[in-house]
From TrEMBL:
SUPFAM superfamilies: FomD-like. It holds the Pfam family DUF402. It comes from Paractinoplanes ovalisporus. This is DUF402 domain-containing protein. Residues 36-145 form the DUF402 domain. It comes from the Bacteria.
């Protein structure tokens, strides 16, 4: 199953994941080490395992990244993901709340990309507001660690 992440103006990023679960929290995709990806500037394969949680109508996608140097849960703030013919797609809104699992630190990354997108008109005012509100809300969620799906993603992560 493909996941298409649209970054403006860079272009489309594609990941070839396996759909493996659906529950009350959404649709779960996984990519073990070696999962192919394509970007406008390169192609390759994943060096670390990942799990992704998506749901229609929800303006974020959660990525559990099994990087031994920095295990982390990254939230891609986005327009709500949509199913397409052979997978999923979403428009990235740049801001990324991240929980660095080992040290428990939460931060919101990519303010520079967000500012550039707003300044250059690649993001509407409504999308910019959505990005800020959702990023701040998701960062709080990561701090609180109260949602059961936060830990469920780690349990679903493929072995490195």
């Amino acid at each position: 199953m493909s996941l298409r992440k649209i970054k403006r103006p860079q272009g489309d990023f594609w990941f070839d994941f396996e759909a493996f679960a659906e529950d009350e929290d959404g649709f779960w995709l996984r990519g073990p080490v070696g999962t192919p990806w394509r970007a406008p500037h390169a192609t390759g394969s994943s060096e670390v395992p990942v799990v992704v949680l998506l749901a229609p109508g929800r303006p974020w996608a959660a990525w559990w990244v099994g990087d031994p140097a920095d295990r982390r849960l990254e939230i891609d703030v986005c327009r709500p993901p949509e199913r397409d013919g052979n997978g999923w797609q979403y428009v990235d809104l740049e801001l990324d709340p991240v929980l660095h699992e080992t040290e428990g630190r939460v931060e919101i990354e990519d303010w520079d990309e967000y500012d550039e997108s707003v300044r250059n008109g690649w993001m509407t005012a409504d999308d910019a507001k959505l990005a800020r509100v959702v990023a701040e809300g998701c960062a709080q969620l990561l701090h609180q660690r109260s949602e059961p799906w936060l830990d469920r993603g780690w349990k679903m992560l493929p072995d490195s």
